[in-house]
Amino acid sequence: MATNGSDLSPNGEIAESYIRRGSLKDMLMVPRDASRPKSPGVAKMSTFQKKKIDYMFDTLYGPTDGDTVSREDFWKLLKTASTIRDWTPMNPGFREFQLRIASIWAGLIKGTLVYKAEGNLLVMEIKREEWNHYWGDFAEAAHLAGQTWPECSKDGRVDYQCLKDFTDFMFNMMDVNGDGSLDKKEYIKCLAAFGIPENDSEDCYERILLILNRDKTDPSQCQLDEPTFDKLWFEFLTSNDEREAGNYLLGPSPVYS
Ligand SMILES: [Ca+2]
């Protein structure tokens, strides 16, 4: 069985060259002093936030060595999406997702270059330490933007556009029937592909709906559509309030146990 994105498609070499072109171009755009963080982003996260960020790192990418996401680790998302959507490499949706993953990976690599130690700029991987700095700065930028999606980091060196693309990618991956909202069956199927047991994901889905209903004046209008999904994803990334629904979006992270 194939183990990475380039093995999953007869056109894998196209997407791979797309990544390489994007990464080289991106590297040339990184300022010369960008190899060292001026203020460690990880210090800008609470313990609660950091646990969620670590959980996302492990759950979505399952890095082979535990602390470094390689391109192959990231591209396992394509295999996961294929499992959820029952796609073969010949499906048009597969090809679309392949290109989107390539673009998002290039964006993440560009963003985390800012946090790499001197001498590691050519390493096309994301280490857990870089990941934590990245999300710490994101949390700070979100706070400065009034708890909304920020366009870039406080110092302007990290562009967060790829995160919006990633959120859209995740929603489309989960919305199997394409009706614009996530039902319980879709949510459970998606989380199962990331190794979350059905009883846990069912519990999380019901908690999310319960909290969303609590906050709605008309519960019948409550659904997990894409704008709501965006809001929940943002809460997962930035919230310090354990009562918010977004904390449960990716399943029962260790902070709830
Ligand atoms: Ca749906």
Model description:
This protein is an all-alpha fold and 257 residues long. Helices cover 55% and strands 2% of the residues. The chain has nine helices and two strands, in the order H-H-E-H-H-E-H-H-H-H-H. The protein has helices spanning 12-29, 47-61, 71-85, 92-113, 128-144, 161-174, 184-193, 198-214, 226-238, and strands at residues 68-69, 126-127. Strands 1-2 form a two-stranded antiparallel sheet. Helix 1 (12-29) packs parallel to helix 4, helix 2 packs across helix 5 and helix 7 (184-193) packs across helix 8. It is globular, with a radius of gyration of 18 Å. The two termini are 35 Å apart. It binds calcium ion. Calcium ion binds next to loops. Residues 175, 177, 179, 181-183, 186 line the site of calcium ion.
Task: Tell me briefly what this model is.
The chain has 257 residues and is mainly alpha-helical.
- Beta strand count: 2
Heterogens: calcium ion
Coarse structural class: mainly alpha
Helix proportion: 40-55%
Helix and strand run: HHEHHEHHHHH
Strand content: under 5%
- Order of adjacent strands in the largest pleated sheet: 1-2
